[in-house]
Amino acid sequence: MTEGFDGRKRETLRRFAAVGAAAPFVGTASADAGSEDTNETREAIRGYVPTTPGAHFSKLRDDLRLGTGEAQYHLRKLEAAGAVESVKDADYRRYFPAGRFDETDKRALGYLRRETPRGMVLALLRDPDATGADLAAALGVSRPTISAAAAGLEDAGLLDRTDGYALTEPERLLTLVVRYADSFDAEAVAFADDAASLVAYDP
């Protein structure tokens, strides 16, 4: 069982390491010193973060099949080397490639990585006139759940609840959904397949 897990872990690390090796990060030479396994793990993280920006620590750790201490160690090294940066988001710490996103992008990606807010954003991008009741029905959740998620989106500057629900940054959100759809879920991928030609914003 352990041998099988180690094999899958190595395959996962190699796949993301190939992306990391080609990533245009700078200032990472000191972070890459060490054994072959260390380099491969770090390159995997460097490949993973740009393709899954805003992923929180536990998701990154689990997707790359890393131990908690192992992931913490390499992320600290990469942050110190200026390759990645992190922000605290409620109970989560989310990771981004350094210097790539502004603060609004980071907030938007943080909410897009949450199931209910992401579903609301997709629904409102499809139908800007959707009501709270429409959103609850579409997502299969309660109205209080929609209201709580809407309050968070409003606090983040992504939603205006003055007169119904209106996205304040629809082009930005559309672009982020389309660009990183594969890192969200099947619904985001399906949305991106239909919406890619509409993108006008380029962060």
From TrEMBL:
Pfam families (alphabetical): HTH_HVO_0163_N, MarR_2
Xref: InterPro entries: ArsR-like_HTH (IPR011991), HTH_HVO_0163_N (IPR056504), HTH_MarR-typ (IPR000835), WH-like_DNA-bd_sf (IPR036388), WH_DNA-bd_sf (IPR036390)
Tree of life domain: Archaea
Listed GO MF terms: DNA-binding transcription factor activity
Domain HTH marR-type, chain residue ranges per copy: 122-163
CDD domains recorded: HTH_ARSR
Residue ranges occupied by any HVO-0163 N-terminal HTH domain in the UniProt entry: 39-109
Record protein name field: Uncharacterized protein
Organism: Halorubrum coriense DSM 10284
